[in-house]
Amino acid sequence: MTHSTRRTFLAQSAALLGTLAAGFARAASYPEQPIHYIVGFAPGGTSDVVARQINPTLAAKLGQPVVIENVPSAGGVIATSQLARAIPDGYTILHTSNAFLTVTPHILKVPFDPLRDVEPVAYLGSSVQILCVHPSLPVNSVTEFIAYAKANGSSLNYGSSGTATGNHITCEYFKRAAGFDATHVPYRGAAPAIQDLVAGRLQFMTDPALLPYIESGKVRALGVVDAASHPVLTALPPLSATIPNWNPPIWSNFISVPAGTPAAVKERLYAAFRDVLASPALRKKLGESSFLVVEMPMPALAAKVKAEYVTMGELIKAANIQVS
Fold first, then answer.
1. Most exposed: 4, 104, 296, 313, by fewest CB within 10 Å?
2. What is the pTM of this model?
3. Could you say which of 3.40.190.150, 3.30.70.120, 3.40.50.720, 1.10.10.10 is the CATH number of the domain covering 34-127+250-319?
């Protein structure tokens, strides 16, 4: 190495070390500006409600404003793409369903790699899918509904919050497990689908956000789409009581960041969400929206997403679930 080459090498090394040091310093002082909190769902759905109930305490915990933006799309494609393109500095985060990363890429062509471009950080919990029908249907149990659906399947429509979303996959799984047919009608979010169920334009659907409509009598609940009875909805039987070998997908909510986000930033976000969700009052309030808070370490969350990517791919292929 010549003297001038060595000088150039040392100068480049010093510049690189300076850049790294500046990056570490910024990560250590994170956050220093407002955080863009993308919610990949339309306003009014369970995930949106969870995000908005968390938000005030989260902002106080982080010491910066947290600005929520709803970015609904089929299977979370637009929201996840927006996150994957963002600067990995912790100032753009995504409130996602596991379906965005483990279901959508198996059904739709997406401009991101779900296991390479996005990093799960903070697990929030899971929402219970409630099977509901319009009150005009002459059924009062899951058994009666399945019998009715087998006799009238060609005239039944069910709604979802979008193609490849949790309630779309849940209903497709339900149809195949119970042996009936029905037409899928995708919406841009759960709220408009629920309004059409209430109006009788849909005959059934599953969603956590149906709970207030059950209580008001606008829809009739038949059961919960869990393998066991649900601690929030103890009066409703699980579908496993009717359907043999029932093992439905469980739809989780968690926070993700762009790949390459500094470890110190991810740890700060993880700790902030963990502390916010430790509040008994907040857990109770979220439970009233049929959302169960569950804590999960960051490595376990990453492993969960990777494993579900494989199992959901197998389920989708076996059930021949396609865009409708």
1. 4
2. 0.78
3. 3.40.190.150
